[in-house]
Amino acid sequence: MLLYLLRHAEAENIAASDFQRRLTPKGEKQATLLGKFCQREGIIPELILSSPVLRARQTAEGVSRFLPEVPCQEATWAACGMAPAQALEELRVYKKFSSILLVGHQPDLGYLAAAFLGIHHARALRVRKGLLMGIETGSMLRLGGGELQFFIPVNFLGS
After folding, report:
1. Alpha-carbon distance 125 to 110, whole Å?
2. Which of 5, 16, 52, 125 has its CA 20 to 30 A from that of 103?
3. Is 80 exceeded by the pLDDT of residue 158?
4. Overall pTM > 0.90
5. Residue pair 34/41 in contact by the 8 Å Cβ criterion
6. What is the number of H-type helices and E-type strands within the chain?
7. How far is 56 from 40, CA to CA, in rounded Å?
8. Three-state DSSP state, 30
9. b/e for 122-159, b at 16 or more Cβ within 10 A?
10. What percent of the chain has pLDDT over 90?
11. Is the bond into 107 cis (omega within 30 degrees of 0)?
12. Band of residue 18 on the pLDDT scale cut at 50, 70, 90
């Protein structure tokens, strides 16, 4: 499986709850840039999974506007605090897909990427807001069995 990991775009700092933090205008622009990039470069997953947290859902929706044929689903297990082992078990449900885009949070995505790549240092990957990466996980979908395909910060995508 080709697993695309995307950290949500820039969000406001203050809201009624962390769960309700919305994207800022800059974050909305970042989500649009990411969607256009995916469309232009043929990064078209079979499924988009998003954390239920508002800023991640808004990022997923912003990207999916440019990939209208790709279904977008909420994944409650991808909320803040997702552990790599838990994500692996949940992703196995989707092993029939050849590619999935997972929109989530830091440090969770950094830990998950590091685990798939066999990096054991807890702070090995810092995933900035709006960063998109692709990891080939292989058909076995096991931690340590992945290969990094790309790692693209949103600020490299232009304006």
Report:
1. 5
2. 16
3. no
4. yes
5. no
6. 4, 6
7. 22
8. helix
9. eeebebebbbbbbbebeeebebeebeeeeebebeebee
10. 84
11. yes
12. confident
Q: What is the pLDDT of residue 142?
A: 85
Q: Which is nearest to 158 in space by CA: 34, 27, 25?
A: 34
Cα dist from 45 to 23, 41, 98, 124, 146, whole Å: 23, 12, 8, 26, 17
Q: Using CA atoms, how far apart are residues 57 and 77, in angstroms rounded to an integer?
A: 13
Which SS3 state, helix, strand or coil, does residue 49 take?
Answer: strand
**136 three-class SS:** strand
Query: Distance from CA of residue 102 to its chain's centroid?
Result: 4
**Over residues 119-138, mean pLDDT:** 86
CA 56 – CA 60 distance, rounded (Å): 6
Instruction: Give residue for tokens 């082992």.
Output: 85
Six token digits for residue 137: 């996980």
- 129 conformational bin, left if phi > 0, alpha if psi -120 to 50, beta if neither: beta
